Amino acid sequence: MKTTTYPVQLRHYLEPLFTNLRSLSSEWQVFAPPSCYLALLDLHLLRPFLNQSIQDSVLTHLLTPEESKIFHNFTYAKRQLEWLGGRIAAKYALHRVRCATKNVSSRLLMHSILPDRHGRPQVIPRPAESPAACVSISHSSGYAAAIACIKGVCGVDIQQKTPVLHRVQKRFADKEEIDAFGAFPQSSLTRLGLLWSAKEAIKKCLLPEHPSFLGTVKLVSVCYLEQERIWTGRFSLIHPVRDHVMVRMGEMDQHLIACTWGENNA
């Protein structure tokens, strides 16, 4: 992602950011369903952007006025960091899936990524050539993830491995779902993390009006693709009834990622 369209004084901050965005997204694109693009960003690279001396200049080249207003309403630096990283990743994913080009740095201000009435990010204005464009955003412990598609709806979730999953296991996973993974992965924490991320991705994609996926989403079967090093899970939806939903899941260091895609009328 080239940054030659930015003022010289900002390249010191922006070039490492976009280099990381391009590198991580390319490395982990295997998690994305067909027709979708997954973007990943290391949030640590955004910390300098919170410095007041450069903030306004940098954000002017990354956010629309509507987005900047939301950004400045956050009072905590951590929330600003996560929100900003999610928007940058979502815009990158959107323009990569639309334009299939790496040189999209000048396109970040073409659209706003704003919350709809359910809090789900929406593209405004809708791209004329792909009015059904959809994005989904997630962040966890130092990373932001976003997925985009130009047809249907999509969902993404990134989750750091944490022992907390063991304590809340009964809320979202039963023995049948855990056993469905078979012998691999051996780590029960990894299994729980994959399940949590997959169900969160499905909720964002297909159940935006539901307050929770608990009791609604059920893992039916799972397959490990050794060459790609990912799991594909087949899930059923109890309400609304749906034959199945496919989710691609995998590990990224100490994080777990899940992506899914569905039809608009799901």
Helices and strands, with pairings:
Blueprint: H1 8-27, E1 36-42, H2 52-60, H3 65-73, H4 77-99, E2 112-115, E3 121-124, E4 134-140, E5 143-149, E6 153-160, H5 164-167, H6 169-172, H7 175-179, H8 188-206, E7 217-225, E8 230-237, E9 242-252, E10 255-262
Antiparallel strand pairs: 1-5, 2-3, 4-5, 6-10, 7-8, 8-9, 9-10
| Secondary-structure arrangement, i.e. CATH architecture of the largest domain | Alpha-Beta Complex
Helicity level:
25-40%
Low-confidence segments, given as residue ranges, are none
The tally of domains stands at 2
Tell me about the biggest sheet? 5 strands, antiparallel
How far is the N terminus from the C terminus?
34 Å
Bulk shape:
globular
Radius of gyration: 18 Å
Annotation, overall tally of beta strands: 10
The CATH superfamily of the largest domain appears as: 4'-phosphopantetheinyl transferase domain
* Strand and helix order: HEHHHEEEEEHHHHEEEE
> What percentage of amino acids are in beta strands?
25-35%
**CATH fold node name of the largest domain:** Ribosomal Protein L22, Chain A
Name the quaternary structure: single chain
Structural class: alpha+beta
